[in-house]
Structures are given as structure tokens and as C-alpha cells.
Queue: 2 jobs
Job 1
Amino acid sequence: MVYSRPLDFEKDYLDLKEKLDELKSMASEKSIDLGAEIASLEEKVARLKEQKYRELTAWQKVQIARHPDRPTTLDFVQAMFHDFVELHGDRCFGDDPALVGGIAWFEGVPVTVIGHQKGKDTNQNLQRNFGMPHPEGYRKACRLMQQAEKFGRPLICFIDTSGAYPGTGAEERGQGWAISQSLLQMSALRIPTISVVIGEGGSGGALALGVADRVLMLSYATYSVISPQGCASILWNDARRADEMAENLKMTAPDLLNLGIIDEIIPEPLEGAHRDAENTFKVVKERLSFHLKQLVEYDPAELVEKRYQRLRKIGVWNQA
């Protein structure tokens, strides 16, 4: 088996794994007994796999979170929801393909789904603006949030963006205002809300979909106020020190769980969601179902109050 687009730190492990696959294939095709050799190589592959992925650095997790084959919002929607109907436009300027949303069924419950959408090749990324929404994307999100609240549908958000688009046109059309409105709208919703960080969660563009009753995060995803390259450029005038900055930003799932910013880490397959998407979908669906069943038991006023209290607990301060 050939593994597409391996990351630099994976190459030695994946090369060894491909040799194992080739050895198994040769033994099967030519009816040769290579049991001892295969067993020895399997043990070596397993040992290297554990060592490689159990000791990932923050920068290596950033690379996995950005992998072009990683499942996107629409991949999760197709795998876990039924009868999804995508809705378009902000009723003000236009539609934004970098942020998708619509209505669907989740285990017999009608829900609203919103998420950032990246592409998986150059053409798709150009169409989706590399998953960086314009203001009309966030206005569309607000429209769908209001609609979900009107009809009493739970809201499920998928976060996967390097950040909101910072171009001149986006600023002229009110990028900061659109994000702030999304934050305000989401914080006051009187319906159950769950956000899942499935890839790269960057800056206010990610936070705009992150003010939820439950914030879940895949184990190799990242969530930060700024990208490691951007922060290294600002503080050290050297984007090449992004690997150091990734450690300092505390942007990985274990760090964020310790800080109380997320509520749960959803384990990915050891090699990452892009290597075993089906099992990733299965686990995410189980955890969404678990949390949704809890949240629907609260009345609307309780949901808003608990969401407020959850946000108030984040951070460290001294009171004079």
C-alpha cells in the first residue's frame, strides 16, 4: 500500500510499513513461507509506530491537523448525518463556500450543522478559499443559528480553519463585526450546542463557531489564537521558529483540556484521522450522541446559564 502525502517525520515509519506490505504480498502471490521474516518486521513496525505517534511534538500535531487528506466538515456530515440539505447565502452579500451549513437528521433528531470547509487539492482549496471564511460566511452562520433556535433544533459545529480571511474586501465588508455577531449569537442560543475541533482551529475565525455548551476536540487537532508561524513572525521576526512557538502556544488537545478550554478529547486512530476516517467518524458520532442526550434534558434558560458559567471559568486571574 502506498501512503499518499506522508509528513516528513513519518517517512521512515511509512517506508518500513510499505516494505512489510510488499513482503506480505510477495509471500501470498508466490506461495513462499516468509512467516518468520514477516513476524519480525511486524514487530519492528509496531514498535516504531508506538514510538513515533505516542511522542508527537506540538509542531508534529500541527502538521497532522493540516494534512490535506484529513476529513473535512462535509466528510463528517456525509458519514454521520442523514438527509443533509445545504443552505446558502447570508441574505446580504452572497454565499461563502469556506463555511458550509444546513439541516440534517442525527439519530432521528433534526439538527442544524455548520462548519468550516477546506479543500483537498489546489482547485478545491481555491474554491473554498482554503477554509478561510469571509464576513458573509459568518453572517450565514448567524442566520442558520437563528433558524435553528426558532425551530428548536440542536446546533452542531465543526471547526477547521487557519483563521478568517484577512483580505481587504473582507475587512471592507465587516469581518470583525461579523465574527463578533457570531460570538454574540452563539453565546445566547436557547438550544443545545456542541462544537468539535476536527482539524486546525485558528484565531477568531475558529472561535466564532466555538462558543458552545460542549467543546470537543480530536486528539491531533489544534486550537489557538494564532498560527505558530504567525506568532513566531510577530514575536521573533522569524517564521522558521514555528516549531518552538507551537510548544509555547499550548495549542494541543491535552494542553487545552488542562486549561479548561475544551471539555473532552476524542481519540483518533494512532496514525491520525486521515489514515482511518471510518473509525474516526464512528467515535465522533458516539461522543456527539452522548453529549446531545445530556444537553436536551436542560431547559433553555439552564443551557444559557451553564454556557455562561462555563466561559467564566476559563482563565486565571487575581481578584484584588
Job 2
Amino acid sequence: MAGLIRNHVPRLREDLVDGFRQDLEETVIDAARWPDLIERASRAAGSEGALLLRSERIGLDALYTPSLAGAARRYFDEGWYRDDYRLRGMPMLRARGIAVDQDFTSPEEIARLPYYQDLLASHGLRWFAGIGFEVEGRLWCLSLQRTVAQGPFEPHEQTRLAMLSPLLRRAGLLTAIVEKSRLAGLTQAFDVIERAALVLDHAGRALSWNEAFGALFGRALKLVGGRLTAEDPEAARHLEAVARPFGRPPVSVVVVARRDAQPIVLHVVPLVGPSRGLFAGGCTLILASVPGIAPVPAASLLQVVYRLTPAEARLAQALFGGISLAEAASRFAVTAATARSQLKAIFAKTGATRQSDLVRLVTGLAR
């Protein structure tokens, strides 16, 4: 086949299944390790990179290795996911736990389809193996991507890769259990700082809330069919938009008027990083406040929402205030290396990739 250099084709590692099983055990304990897991799985499978996504809602829950960042951005930003040719492989994913391009695509189709010749070819990609597994009735796919030179996944490789499907299913189920417990603990943790909190899933339904938020329910603000709604028509429209399935919250603040009391101000904070439950479905945090009550410092909220240490939260809030990392290190009497290490940990826990992302995140919590 043109472009295929057999002498340089990497193959699956001999310890693929055993190594993957050990990695999964660590991932269940800490869901934040799932990105590392798919990176290691990609290398073990002799792939250029990998994505982990839900097949029926591609993109919203996706994780991908850094090597596929450019291709993934095009895939989602340009709408390729709406007509993903590889969705033809879903019946194979369900039936035997794995699907490859050869199952549903001919060489002639690869040569002419824009999906292969535009999206994939522009990033040097060609071949895929999708490992399917179900978590609570939803089909997920670990999509391994190879370049033209790396070659397609051969039948004997497919057989070994299919062995990962039940392992992924078990790990996904256990992770979902852990994440649900943590989401419940997240809302309860806000009781410590006397802040009302509620978590929405990706479809806009309420997953959990603490007693402080529950105390605000009444005629003005209530749950109907698991979704937040308000008596005030304008607030009801905003809450409907926030709860709209499969989209990012279009507003950051919703003011709910009340007839006999001060209005309730709802702050909409998208969950990212480890705080976003990959399998449990936690997507959006709603923080409620009432005018006249002293606001909670953003540093305290950062510790609760993103599990930052006090030092990390202090640094994040200082950077939000406009000082440089060097100035923050001097102010807190730590070395530059320590400050950089703390910033790296903040990025890992919050999902931010640059300080401007961090500023927007803290802005949302500081309101």
C-alpha cells in the first residue's frame, strides 16, 4: 500500500493487557488520571494518539492526547463530529467490542472521502481502531489513531485490543461510582463555607445539591422534572438555556426575582479538569447567593471546587489580581521553582492551560 513503510510500523506491546489492567486500577482511584491512561494506551498500541469519547454525544466528554490536539480542535470546531464517517462502525463496537476502518470503508472511499483526505490527511492520520465499552447504558469509545506510515490495525492486533473492552467497562463503572460520591461530597463541602451549591449533568438535570441550596427552593425557584426553573419569566428563560442538553452554559449569572425576599443570584460555573465527572456526568456547578450576604473569597471556593491546596488557591487568586508569577513567589516567600510547580498543579486540577484561562475561572467564582 502506498505510503506504508513496513519496517517502521510499531506493533502492540507484549504486556499490553497486563499493563493496561494495572493502569486502570490506578485510574479508578483518581479519575484525573484518565488522560494519562489514554496516553499510555496509545503508546502501547503503537498509535500516534488516542481519544476517549461518548459515541452518541461526540465532543462534549472527549479526552484526547496532546499529539491529537490540532486534529481534535478541527474535528469539533469545524463540525466534523456531526457527520463522522466512522460512526458506521458503531454496530461492530457493540457486537464485538472493536471496530476498524477496514470493517466499513473501502480503499476507494478512503481515497475520495473528505473525512479521510481533508481532516485526517492534513494531520498525517489515516487508520483507527475503536474499542467500545458501555457505562450505565451509554456507549463509549477509546479511539486509537495511526498515521499512514504506522499502518492499519491488523486482525491479530484487533483480537488483543478487543480484550481491553471489558477492562474499560469495569473501570468506567467503578469510576462512575467514585465520581458520584465525589459530586455529592462536592456540594456538601460548600456547607463548610456556607454557600449554596448544585451540580447539573450534561443534559441540564440536577445531580446533587446541598441543604443550603435546597433551602432556596420555593415558589420562585424550584425543580421540575429534575431541571431548575423560576417563576420569573426572564429567569426561567435563562435557566432553560443553562439546562439545554449538550451545550455550554450561555450565561454566567441568572437573577431570580422573589416576591417577598431579596432575589437569588445564581452563578453558573462550568466544571473542568478532575472536577468534571467524566462518567458520572457532572458538567456545571450552580452557586447561589443572596444580596447582603458577605461573599465567600474565591480562594476558598477554589479549594472546594478544584481540590487546590491552600497555597495553590492563594497563588491562583494572586495571579487573578494581576501580579506576575515572580511577584507572587516573592510575596509568599517561596522560590520561583516552587511557584512554577504550584502553577503546574493548578493547571492540572482546573483544566486551565494558560493564566488567562485561570483568570476567567476565578472571575466566575469571585462574583
